[in-house]
């Protein structure tokens, strides 16, 4: 398969027609999945990245998707390639947010979350692998030091015994025999010191981690932040690009972590509420439902409730329904005060003219009843919804 992959790379470089390039890219991708990680990373990925400058938008889009899938298929990265994402892959894709074709930009918005997730997984794997391999090697080095300190003196003792026997049998050559026996003894001590010093140096070198996870992860996060910022606020940004990012907000939330979510991701996502397309506003609440558990209670109180107030008066019933279902998904992460305040605003929607909004309101009330203590359910929540129900339910959960 390695020879086939190399042959396909050569054919891809010499192809002229769009159909031929697409067929060669697909064959190269399928053959790459049957090769080892080194061939995928060192041979297939560079040839796929060269197709990002092709004149055809279809070829560029297909090459981008194949690059992301090949990188995600790698079982692990060697420590020498720890910087491949922020020094090679992402810089090679830096022109895509400004591509002339919107289909390429949308494909990049859909792919950046998968690329970030692959980078996160590979860096974690390298960190875990380096920590697991360093400890056994250090133990082996310590054993070698002990062996050197034990074995070499024993050899020295045996040589001393031989020297004594020679002194006894050859009394006439006592002085020369003593000189002959002293030299191996000093040579043994020197050999022991040299071997012990070399083994200690190897053990000290193994104590240094092969991959600095925090530094490499910070570099990758910085590169992905620039990509997300360009896709959302760039001159060529569009509603479809933002929806592509929102569709994989959960993976971006795991990749960025709580601090970067609150500092970067949430402020960028909130700008989607100002869009004229109601589909984008609805996608925002779907993304918040998946990102909310990673933000913390403070961020949910600060960001979500004001967005809810804006969504409840939206002219599109689909947006209102999505907002209420978003609340139902994250209500277990809200504080009791915030949850009761949200329930007070959602309760009137039980009489909404849209069946979808009424079903969403029922789902939220049920989820809130599960999240609240039983005393608060029957003393506060039931009082809020009593005026909008024809009859009191036996159980709210």
Instruction: Give average pLDDT, whole number.
Output: 79
Query: Count of DSSP helices?
Result: 16
Alpha carbon gap, first and last residue = 58 Å
Number of strands: 0
**Low confidence ranges:** 144-161, 167-188, 203-209
Gyration radius, to the nearest Å? 33 Å
What is the string of helix and strand elements?
Answer: HHHHHHHHHHHHHHHH
Query: Looking at the structure, what is the overall shape?
Result: elongated
Biggest β-sheet: count, sense, barrel? none
Helix proportion range: over 70%
The share of residues in extended strands comes to under 5%
How would you classify the helix and strand content by structural class?
mainly alpha
Structure in words:
Helix content is 77%, strand content 0%. The chain is built from 16 helices and no strands. It starts with a helix and ends in an 11-residue tail after the last helix. The chain is elongated. The relative contact order is 0.06. The chain has helices at 2-14, 18-32, 37-50, 57-73, 84-92, 102-169, 174-207, 213-233, 239-246, 249-270, 278-291, 297-311, 317-330, 336-346, 355-371, 374-386. The protein is an all-alpha fold and 397 residues long.
């Amino acid at each position: 398969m390695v020879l086939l992959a190399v042959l396909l790379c050569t054919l891809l470089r010499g192809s002229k027609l769009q159909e031929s390039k697409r067929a060669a890219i697909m064959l190269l991708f399928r053959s790459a999945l049957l090769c080892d990680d080194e061939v995928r990373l060192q041979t297939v990925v560079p040839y796929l990245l060269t197709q990002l400058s092709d004149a055809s938008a279809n070829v560029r889009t297909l090459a981008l998707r194949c690059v992301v899938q090949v990188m995600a298929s790698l079982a692990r990265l060697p420590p020498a390639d720890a910087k491949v994402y922020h020094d090679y892959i992402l810089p090679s894709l830096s022109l895509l947010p400004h591509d002339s074709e919107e289909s390429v930009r949308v494909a990049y918005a859909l792919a950046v979350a998968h690329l970030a997730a692959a980078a996160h997984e590979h860096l974690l794997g390298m960190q875990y692998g380096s920590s697991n391999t360093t400890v056994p090697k250090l133990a082996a080095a310590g054993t070698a030091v002990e062996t050197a300190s034990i074995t070499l003196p024993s050899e020295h003792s045996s040589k001393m015994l031989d020297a004594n026997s020679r002194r006894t049998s050859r009394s006439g050559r006592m002085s020369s025999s003593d000189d002959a026996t002293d030299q191996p003894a000093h040579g043994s001590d020197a050999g022991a010191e040299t071997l012990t010093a070399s083994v200690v140096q190897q053990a000290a070198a193994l104590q240094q981690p092969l991959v600095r996870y925090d530094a490499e992860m910070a570099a990758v996060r910085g590169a992905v932040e620039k990509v997300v910022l360009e896709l959302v606020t760039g001159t060529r940004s569009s509603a479809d690009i933002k929806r592509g990012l929102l569709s994989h907000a959960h993976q971006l939330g795991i990749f960025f972590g709580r601090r970067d979510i609150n500092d970067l991701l949430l402020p960028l996502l909130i700008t989607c509420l100002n869009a004229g397309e109601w589909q984008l506003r609805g996608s925002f609440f779907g993304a918040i439902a998946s990102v909310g558990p990673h933000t913390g209670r403070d961020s949910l109180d600060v960001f979500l409730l004001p967005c809810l107030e804006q969504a409840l008066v939206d002219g599109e019933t689909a947006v209102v329904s999505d907002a209420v279902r978003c609340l139902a998904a994250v209500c277990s992460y809200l504080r009791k005060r915030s949850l009761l305040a949200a329930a007070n605003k959602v309760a009137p929607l039980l009489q909404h003219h849209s069946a979808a909004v009424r079903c969403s309101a029922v789902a939220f009330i049920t989820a809130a009843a599960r999240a609240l203590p039983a005393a608060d359910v029957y003393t506060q929540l039931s009082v809020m919804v009593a005026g909008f129900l024809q009859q009191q339910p036996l159980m709210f959960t």
